[in-house]
Structures are given as C-alpha cells and as structure tokens.
Design a protein that fits this description.
heterotrimer; A alpha+beta (318); B alpha+beta (596); C mainly alpha (98); A: 318 residues; alpha+beta; Ribosomal Protein L22, Chain A; four-stranded mixed β-sheet; 9 strands; globular; C: 98 residues; Non-ribosomal Peptide Synthetase Peptidyl Carrier Protein, Chain A; 48% helix
Chain lengths: 318, 596, 98
C-alpha cells in the first residue's frame, strides 16, 4: 500500500487522547478532568437514555407559537422545570422542534456538553453559555481555555474537549452503508478513490465510514462543516500516521494536526481531529482562576467600583 | 543614571531630520504620505521578482528566521521613529496612525511586524507612561538609533509559554537582584533594552509587582542567559527565545515608577497596547482576503467563476464586513487613547479580546474558497496559510483572552449601573477617522472606566430614526432594537453581579457577559463610524449597506433576533470589495492605496 | 426509513420545481423536523440532481447555508440557474454539530 510521502516526517508525535470515556450525568467527571490535564484533550461518549431520564424530552410539548423573545427562561412551556435555565438560548429552539427523535438528541447532547464543560471548568452547568459561531459550530462563550466539539448519531453522543487548540469529533454507525452511494462518489479525492479501489470488498465500507468521520472531524475542527469541499482534502486509508493529504495524495496540513479513529460501543466509528498550536497552554482550565487576581484587585480598588454614590438617575432613552 | 550611555550613534540619530513639527505629524496628509512611502518601498508582494514579496517572506518563514532584506528596508524607513513620542524626537503622536503605518508591514508579514516593530512599541509604552526623563531619553535614543526593546509580562494562572513564570526582584545585602526564567520573550536575544515586569513581593494582590527598564549591555554577563528558541507553528520568522537571570544585580534607578506599581503600570500601558497590536494585525487578514480574491478570480470557486457563485461572493463580502467591524472597534479603541478617555482600557481590552476571534473565524471561512490550496506553501497563494498560522500567535491564544477579560469583567457592574442606557453624551471624535487628535499622553492613560461613550452611541442611534439609511431604514430599525435590547439585558445581568465577590466575577456566566459586551461595543463602533461619516469624503462608509451587514453578523454572533428572512445588502459590499481589489486599496476603513 | 424520507422530500421538491407552486411541507426543516443528518443531505442533493438533470451540478458546499427547510431549498434551486444572490444563511441546521 502506498503511504503518503512525508508521512515519516520529523516532529514528535503530538499526544492524542485516550480511548473515549463513557459518562452519565453522575460522571466520572474527575477522570475527565484528569485526562484533560494529563493529555491535553479528552473524548467522552454517552448513551442517549442515560441523559434523558432526568429530563424526558417529551416534556414540555413542542410549540410552534413561541414568541420572538431571545430568552427561553420563564416563557411558555417548561413550567418550573430547571430546563429553560439550563438550556439558555437553546431553549427556544428546543421548544420549536417537532421531531421527537431530534428533540431527544438535541436535549441530551446539550446537557452532555454543558455538564462536561461545567466539569472541566469547575462551574455550574447553568452558568455555561453554550453559543454558536455564524456557521453553527458550538463553543463556550467567554471561556476559550477549552474548545469543544459535538457529534451524535442514533443513540450515541460524543463530545471532544481540548485545552490545546481546536478539536473536531464525528461519530457514525459503523454499519452505515456508504459504499456505492452518492456519498462515496461525492466525498472522495482521486487519491482516496484509487486507494479504496484496492481495498478488499468487505473492508471497503468500513474504510469509507472511517474516511467520512475523519473528514467531518477535520472540517468541524476548522469550523466549516459541509461548506469545506470534502474532495479538496483527504486521508490515506491504511496509513500508519494519519494526516491530511491534498487531492493527489501529497501532504496537506502540517504536523500540528493529529487524528484518531476508534470503535465505540461495538457499533460506532468515532474520529477525532485535533490541532495544537504549540502555546503550551496551562493545565489549569478552571473558571475561578481565569480571572487574574492582581488585575481584578487593581481595578476594584478604584472607588467608583465599590461605592455607588452619585449614581446617575437611570433614565432609559431607548 | 545607571543606564550606560548608548554607544550607538546618538549624535547621528539626533542629527537625522526625523520629524518636523509634531503638528505636521498629526495631519492626515502626513500619515497618508508615510503609508504611501512604505508601500512604495515594499513594492508589489505578488511580483515574483520582488525580493521583498511573498516568495522571500515564505522562504524566511521556512528557514524560521527574520527576513534580513525586509528589516533593512524598515531600517531605511526609520520605522523605529514611529515608536518614539514626538517630544523625544520620534514620530509617535497618535495610536490610530501608528497602527495604520504598521499595517503595511503586517500586510506583508506578521512575523516581521511583530519582531521588528510591535514588541518595541509594547515595551516602550511602559517607559513613556512611567519612566523618569533619563529613562525615557535612553529608551528613545536606543530606538532612534535602530535598537530594540523587549518586554516580559507577569505570570497568569491561565498562562502559556508566553505568560508563564515570572522574574523575582529581591534585595540581598542591600542590593536589588533579579532571578528566574521566562520561556518566551520576543526579541529577547537581540534587544538591548529590557522591560521586565517582576514579582517584588510574595504578597497576593495588585501591589506585588514592579517594572524595570534594563540595559542588557550593562548587566553582568554571567548572570543573564539566553534560552533556546521556542518553536511555534506560526510566526516562525519572529525571534522567540527566553531569558534566565541568576541573582543578577540591577541598578536602583532601573525601576519604572515606584516599587509595587507593576500591575497598575501594566494596566495603563495596556490601554494603549491592547488596541494597537490587533489593529496592526488587521493588515495580515487583509492579505488573506486579497489572496482569496486572487484565487477566486484565477480559478473560480467550486468549478464556477465567482460571478456565478453567489455563496462565494457572500463569503467574500462577509470577510470584508468582518474586517470593517474589527477596524471600527480598533478605531474607537485607539482614538479613545488619544482623547484620554477613562474607559480606554476597557475598549482596548475589548479590541484585544474580540479581534482575534473575528479574524480567526474570517480566515477559516475564506479557506473554503481556496480548498486544497490552503495547504500550498509557495507560489501565488502560498501566503494564505502563513497568515492563517501567524494570526493566532499575535493574540497569545487563551492567555491573551483571559487577560483581556480580567480587565473587562471587574468593570461590568459599575458600567452597567452608571453608564449604560443613561443619557451619557457620545464622543464623535472617536469615529472621525481622518481627523486630528490631541497628542497621545501616556501619563493620562487612566484605568478608571467612566462614561461608556460607545454604548452611548448605540443608545443615541436607537433613539433616532435612522432616516439616513434610506431604503435600509426598515432593516436597520429592528437591528438597532435588538442591540438595544441586548444592552438592556446586559445591564440587568451585570448590575446584578457582586463585583467584590470572586465567585461572582470568576465565573463562566460573567465571562460570557463580558464576551457579549465586546460584541455590543463592536456594533456601537460600526454605528458610530457610519453616523459620523455622513456628508464626509468616505462615501462607502456613509452608506448603510456595510453597516446593515455588520450589525446582522454581530447579531448572529450574539444569537439574537437575526431574521433569516432579512437578506443583508451584501451585493453592494461585494461591489465595493471588488473595486478595492481591482484598484489595489486596503480592506479596512481607510481605503488606502496599496502597492498591489 | 431514511430512504423513504429522502424519496419523499426529493419528490416534493421536484414537483414544486415543475409546477412552480410551493412544495408540500414547505416549512418542514430538514434537521429539526425531518431528522436529516449530513449524509442524508448529500444523498438528497444527489437524488435531486438525478431527477432534474437540468439543474446542472449542485455543489452541496455552496448550498448548505441556504437549505434550512424544504421551501428555502426549493427557492435556492429555482434561483441557482440564474445565480441570483440568495437569502442570507440562517443558522446552519446541525451540519456542524451533528
């Protein structure tokens, strides 16, 4: 089998996370924190049902009459549930979903993201502001000490977290039929098509599923999803060191990128893309230490920040 | 004084006619002429025969060394004089114009801009803000003679290789001495002047650090050691080494300000440095966008020419809009410094926080257009990947963001209660991009955040009917409503913060509020630029199209009220982008003529 | 089941293109209401191309931003031939997250 030229190139292999770790709302969060501290990144996975038992997704009922308010908290359905506060801005979108499967996955994945983020930042899940880039990529607003990525399929949820740079994860049923489909025709580079043609018939679908998840993971790490043409970059199925290749099979991205593929829960293929910019970022990612004590102290010494005398009359001109 | 007299050509430096009367330096014509001069010297970067073009820059990057020819060019231009206050014989009178001049350098090579220039500027700020007249004279002469200043900051809990570890200043046998190591200091191995923020007391709090100005040549050789080069993915041509001091005696007169002033002085200098550096870096994003346009023109996008690919045009117009958003906030930040506003430090921190985020997203969106050419490291499009690699380094990653948010978060509560949605008057001089400003006074750079004149702009605009927007008034009005609503929600949430409680401040909820506040400031800055160009010579800025697109993009980031049914007037923005691409002028607020 | 769904959506869109009328399920969102994922989007676009060769090449990367629901997908295909600017992209369904 041909391997990509330059695959043997020099830099020390960047550290990749351990096998994905299964989590429920109960954890084990200390293990997640430890993996993130020690390896710089961690991938967790979860079963849908483990995350829906506390918050059944059929409650509250879907409503198409939601108002234009941006905040879900306290509006419409939800009653005294903790859910609106927990979902924040996602609440409204959640209430407008009509497909029960989609609602369930949406809810469970947001809960998993918030719990995982809260665990590593050592904060409350409701204090995490899960926001979206203009292209849809999720991120933790105001807390870029970790980057996150989310994927879900069937009853599996996967979240990747790194403190080293940017991350992308993607999961797919290993049995999903891609061979001979439009997907096979549309996502492969000429080099990949060539390599796949030489792959044994029985192994070809598995190789395609792996390629697909690697491509999704990479494209999510750079924030582009399906907008980045999947025929513009590729991988070499079977290569020892996985790296991004150009369509003709020559090396693409640099050594700062690393990739991994795992088989999870016996029936899923999960891939990870990770870029480490080399800042050697701090092991400490806790929210409480992110505020620089000395700067905050200097700013709060100012009299105006501790006394509210001579407050202007608040007249709202809007 | 203990700083040795500079052996370098002091007389020669003083003899060169650097600057005429400071007044002449302020004028728009003078700034435009310096930018044009620098552009002319650099020449067309896409010309393969130009030794200062992209080919040479990429080769230097590959070697991991500064590009000697480019540094000689900047010597010849006397670029260092731009970093020295006019009162000390240099050409520095304004922060906004300094950034404009340096953009020419960053447009070519961010490593060159950072390694040659920006870090001398960052280091110098502390000297101009707190140095004795002897210290200021020495630093000015060093720079005017072609020397360099390097700077080492404090350690942050969320530090990285740049902001981890710190030097310790102690007293032994009645003498001050410096110990410790810092892994990465830009230009550490070639700067004669060192500005060192060091721990001078083991106590916690804001009075435990001091700042020194050291003459490297006067330090005992055995007590200071250069550390090895630190390898980075980006900015490989920028010298990044480190320093180690071992019981190194330092003169009594090397303190900048008083002992214990370190944190306060840093905050004061940050009010200047945090807005100018990101403002310079915009030049790099300009080249990334220009490269994407060249690629699209030459090869099409997705097998179609751009004229037949609306999605590609939308991406390009969006990137241009992002640059205009960035420049609007940077403009407000840098001009606030000149106006000596109390809130300058907050605007500078917002600029430092938000611009790297917007520029990162912007170049990655553009990467979609280039496809597999983002991996090419040479030829006509090879410069794209270099700017993508360099951009994150200039902001120092998360440590930089954490430091910026540490300046904004403690102010939120007071700002919310005192200044948001009150009838604070605005400050039109923040937005008149070509108008003069008072000479920058580093000693006046306060850290006392008083009136929030940017938010006042938002309040004023939301109050008025945006009739200037013509047919776009109907789109603009609800956008302003959404933004005002966002500010109202921010006020409510921030006023509820307990500023003296660490739990309340050091919390993801508070950082998220700070993030949203920076987006509101960016929106207000765009609005201010648009409102205050009405009837002026910058007709594109005076028209509403870019503003509507900018506010739509900001609202999308805020996750508020973007009606998917309201298309932005992107076609007009794309038309302007095309015009500037064809006529070689800059993709920022200034529409500056370029060499290519 | 997803095959049936793909066929149904493709039929609805093609019928709308042929009749010039709004498609059935105009406001059904591909992700939130129909449960599409990225692979299904690729299959859908492929089917549309197969059934309406006149549409020419339909590059998904240029379309994902504008196909939140069946109605916007239909509009996008109607205007694709004339290459008119399309509505600003809304939040992309879950192309990135799912």
């Amino acid at each position: 089998m041909t391997t990509a030229p330059g695959a043997s190139a020099v830099l020390p292999a960047p550290s990749v996370p351990a096998e994905p770790l299964q989590v429920t709302p109960q954890g084990p969060w200390h293990t997640v924190r430890r993996e993130l501290a020690e390896r710089g990144s961690v991938v967790v996975f979860a079963r849908l049902q483990d995350w829906l038992s506390d918050f059944p997704s059929d409650l509250p009922p879907a409503t198409s009459t939601a108002t234009g308010a941006e905040f879900g908290a306290g509006m419409g359905a939800g009653g005294d549930s903790a859910l609106p506060a927990l979902l924040g801005r996602d609440w409204q979108r959640f209430t407008q979903m009509t497909n029960d499967d989609v609602r369930g996955r949406f809810l469970a994945s947001r809960l998993l993201l918030k719990y995982a983020a809260a665990a590593v930042l050592e904060a409350r899940p409701a204090d995490i502001d899960l926001a979206y880039k203009p292209g849809g990529r999720p991120y933790l607003r105001g807390c870029d000490q970790v980057d996150i990525s989310l994927s879900h399929t069937a009853d599996l949820l996967v979240v990747g977290i790194t403190r080293r740079g940017w991350i992308g994860v993607d999961a797919e049923l290993s049995s999903r039929q891609l061979r001979g489909s439009a997907v096979e025709r549309q996502i492969c580079t000429p080099y990949e098509t060539q390599l796949l043609a030489r792959t044994h018939q029985q192994a070809r679908n598995a190789a395609l599923v792996r390629l697909w998840t690697l491509k999704e993971a990479y494209s999510k790490a750079i924030g582009q999803g399906l907008r980045f043409r999947f025929t513009e970059f590729g991988f070499a199925p079977g290569a020892r060191r996985v790296q991004v290749l150009r369509p003709d099979g020559t090396p693409g991205s640099g050594d700062e990128w690393s990739f991994c593929t795992w088989s999870v829960a016996g029936r899923y293929t999960v891939s990870l893309a990770l870029v480490d910019l080399g800042f050697d970022d701090a092991v400490d990612v806790a929210a409480r230490t992110m505020l620089d004590e000395a700067m905050a102290d200097a700013l709060l010494r100012q009299p105006q920040n501790t006394r509210w005398t001579a407050q202007r009359e608040v007249r709202d001109p809007l | 004084m203990a700083l040795t007299t500079l052996a370098v050509s002091h007389n020669e430096a003083a003899a060169r006619p650097r600057a005429a009367h400071p007044g002449a330096l302020h004028a728009e014509a003078a700034v435009a002429a310096r930018v044009a001069d620098l552009e002319r010297r650099f020449g067309d970067p896409w010309d393969p025969a130009n030794p200062l073009g992209h080919a040479g820059i990429l080769a230097a990057d590959e070697r991991g060394r500064p590009q000697a020819e480019a540094e000689q060019l900047l010597d010849g231009f006397d670029l260092n004089a731009e970093f020295v206050p006019a009162a000390l014989g240099g050409r520095l009178v304004r922060a906004d114009t300094l950034a404009r001049v340096l953009r020419c350098v960053f447009r070519r090579d961010q490593a060159l801009g950072t390694g040659y220039g920006a870090f001398s500027v960052l280091a110098g700020a502390s000297v101009w803000a707190a140095g004795s007249s002897a210290q200021q004279r020495w630093a000015a002469d060093l720079l005017l003679g072609g020397g360099r200043l390097a700077v080492s900051y404090r350690e942050l809990a969320h530090g990285n290789a740049f902001l981890r570890d710190e030097f310790t200043l102690s007293t032994r046998d009645g003498r001050r001495e410096l110990s410790g190591a810092k892994r990465v200091i830009i230009n550490a191995d070639r700067a004669r002047g060192l500005v060192i923020v060091c721990r001078s007391s083991a106590e916690p709090g804001s009075r435990s650090h001091s700042t020194l100005l050291l003459d490297r040549d006067a330090l005992p050789a055995g007590k200071v050691r250069d550390l090895q080069r630190y390898p980075m993915v980006g900015m490989r041509g920028c010298p990044m080494t480190g320093l180690e001091f071992t019981h190194c005696p330092v003169p009594e007169s090397s303190l900048l300000g008083q002992q214990g002033d370190g944190v306060e002085l840093a905050l004061r200098s940050f009010a200047f440095t945090r807005s100018i550096l990101p403002s310079m870096v915009l030049g790099g994003a300009d080249t990334a966008l220009r490269t994407a346009l060249r690629f699209a023109a030459a090869r099409g996008v997705g097998g179609r020419p751009v004229e037949r690919n609306p999605q590609a045009r939308r991406t390009l117009a969006g990137a241009f809009t992002d640059l205009l958003i960035c420049d609007s906030l940077a403009l407000a930040g840098t001009r606030a410094a000149g106006l000596g506003l109390g809130i300058t430090g907050v605007y500078a921190a917002a600029t430092k926080y938000l611009l790297p985020i917007l520029l990162h997203d912007c170049v990655h969106e553009l990467s979609v257009l280039l496809g597999s050419s983002i991996y090419v490291r040479d030829g006509e499009f090879g410069i794209f990947q270099k700017h993508v690699r360099d951009l994150p380094v200039t902001s120092l990653g998360h440590a930089g963001a954490a430091a910026a948010l540490s300046t904004i978060s403690p102010e939120l509560s007071a700002l919310a209660r005192r200044s948001w949605l009150t009838d604070t008057p605005g400050e039109p001089a923040l937005f008149t991009l070509r108008a003069d400003l008072p000479t920058l006074d580093f000693r006046r750079l306060g850290t006392l955040a008083a009136d929030d004149v940017l938010c006042a702009e938002l309040a004023a605009a939301a109050h008025q009917d945006p009739t200037g927007a013509g047919e776009h008034a109907a789109v603009l009005r609800p956008l302003l409503g959404h933004l005002a609503g966002e500010l109202r929600r921010l006020r409510e949430a921030c006023a509820a913060l307990a500023p003296l409680s660490r739990h309340s401040l050091a919390n993801p909820h508070t950082y998220a509020l700070a993030d949203r506040y920076t987006l509101v400031l960016a929106a207000a800055a765009c609005l201010g630029v648009w409102r205050h160009q009405q009837g002026g010579p910058d007709t594109f800025l005076a028209r509403p199209h870019w503003l509507v697109c900018a506010l739509l993009r900001i609202c999308t980031r805020l996750g508020i009220g973007t009606p998917a049914t309201a298309p932005g007037p992107e076609a007009e923005v794309y038309t302007e982008l095309s015009r500037r691409f064809t006529h070689a002028s800059s993709f920022d607020l200034y529409d500056t003529p370029l060499a290519a | 089941m997803s095959e049936l769904l793909l066929d149904r959506v493709a039929d609805d869109v093609v019928t709308a293109l042929e009749t010039g009328r709004p498609p059935a399920g105009e406001h059904s969102r591909l992700y939130e209401d129909l449960g599409f994922d990225s692979l299904m989007l690729i299959e859908l676009v492929d089917r549309l191309q197969e059934r309406r060769p006149a549409l020419g090449e339909l590059p998904l990367p240029d379309m994902v931003g504008g196909m939140a629901d069946i109605g916007s997908l239909t509009d996008l295909l109607r205007t694709a031939a004339t290459a008119q600017p399309q509505p600003a992209p809304g939040m992309e369904a879950e192309g990135n997250a799912a």
